[in-house]
Write a structure and sequence with these properties.
Elements lengths: L1 H8 L4 E6 L2 E6 L2 E7 L5 H16 L7 E3 L8 E3 L2 E8 L10 H13 L14 H21 L5 H30 L9 E4 L19 E4 L2 H13 L5 H12 L6 H12 L2 H12 L3 H16 L1 H9 L1 H4 L18
Antiparallel strand pairs: 1-2, 2-3, 3-6, 4-6, 5-6, 7-8
Helix pairs in contact: 3-7, 4-5, 5-8, 5-10, 6-8, 9-10
Length: about 325
């Protein structure tokens, strides 16, 4: 690693350590972290680079900034793996503000990002992306129907898929209706979001925001994925939800458009799609067992999740502020 770093960046790495699966090291009294970028293109990395520089200039000192190679590239070949090098705060510090407040500030800064975003842009694309994902999985499901049953996971996938098709179609329609019925406001402008907020380092309390986690999207993306993660962990009680959104809205109040997009994203069974995709992509037997357990739990808790969705607006007392449509077939017990 030392020789490779010197070849690509002209530096000698010192005090190499592991942090949450990443390599960090010191060089000339600065701290750096190596991050695999896998599917990120150079064009995406260029946009992420600009976002990071902008947010750092706005005063967010927890943002990691990309360091180009000696050739000026943002992605390097690190022993056969595509990686990016980031400069990070010398001392990692624990987040003291509630995550809702911190997230709202990040979104507020991101909405004022002055450059056009093309390659990392996801705003307004949910219906199409969800539809494509559903079509792809439906083709795979039909293949599995024609084959000899492999295992219990495949049986459960085949049996449960039609139910999650229905949820997905409801989510797509909910977005379409929202775009027809509601007027977007300033809060509904695109901003710096995360592919999966709960999976980021800083969401866990470590104040380092990695641009490779980001996309450019509506704030409802992050809000919904945080709620989804709370639910999956069994922590989405009324008090927890109210506190999270209260902290967020003290910085930026949400519109009816925002709440409806957030709800549509909760309707979309992302956790189901990722579980099925993860099972068939991994070669690890241990991970396959984990995905199998996850799918069984999702199916077993499906009625419980319906109840959660049916009561979501009520839990947050949103009927006092907005007229938000409900999904009438969802069970509410």
């Amino acid at each position: 690693m030392l020789g490779w770093m010197e070849q690509e960046y002209g530096w000698k790495a010192e005090r190499i350590e592991k942090l949450e699966g990443y390599y960090t090291f010191m060089c000339q009294n600065e701290r750096y972290i190596l991050v695999p970028v896998r599917h990120r293109t150079e064009a995406e990395m260029s946009e992420l680079y600009q976002m990071a520089v902008y947010l750092a200039a706005k005063g967010d000192l927890s943002v990691a900034t990309i360091v180009p190679t000696k050739q000026g590239k943002l992605v390097a070949d690190g022993g056969g793996q595509r990686v990016a090098l980031f400069r990070i705060p010398f001392q990692l510090y624990t987040r003291t503000a509630p995550i809702g407040k911190e997230l709202a500030k990040l979104h507020a800064y991101g909405r004022s990002f002055p450059s056009k975003v093309v390659h990392c842009n996801r705003i307004g694309q949910w219906k199409e992306l969800w539809g494509q994902r559903l079509d792809q999985m439906e083709l795979f499901w039909k293949e599995k129907l024609q084959q000899k049953r492999e295992d219990e996971f495949t049986d459960l996938f085949i049996e449960s898929f039609s139910y999650y098709v229905g949820l997905t179609e409801n989510a797509i329609q909910y977005v379409a209706d929202t775009e027809l019925d509601e007027q977007p406001y300033t809060v509904d402008a695109a901003t710096v979001c995360h592919e999966r907020l709960p999976q980021t380092l800083w969401a866990g309390g470590k104040e380092m925001k990695l641009p490779t986690d980001w996309v450019y999207d509506h704030c409802a993306r992050d809000l919904a994925e945080w709620v989804r993660a709370l639910y999956v962990k069994g922590a989405a009680d009324e008090e927890q939800l109210q506190r999270f959104f209260r902290d967020y809205e003290r910085v930026t109040p949400l519109s009816a458009f925002s709440w409806r997009l957030l709800y549509a994203r909760l309707l979309f069974p992302l956790h189901y799609f990722e579980c099925v995709e993860g099972y068939y992509l991994t070669e690890s037997e241990q991970e396959k067992q984990q995905y199998a357990q996850m799918l069984r739990s999702l199916v077993d808790r499906s009625q419980e999740y319906e109840t959660f969705l049916a009561s979501f607006y009520e839990r947050l007392e949103l009927a006092k502020r907005f007229q938000l449509p409900i999904i009438r077939w969802l069970s509410y017990t």
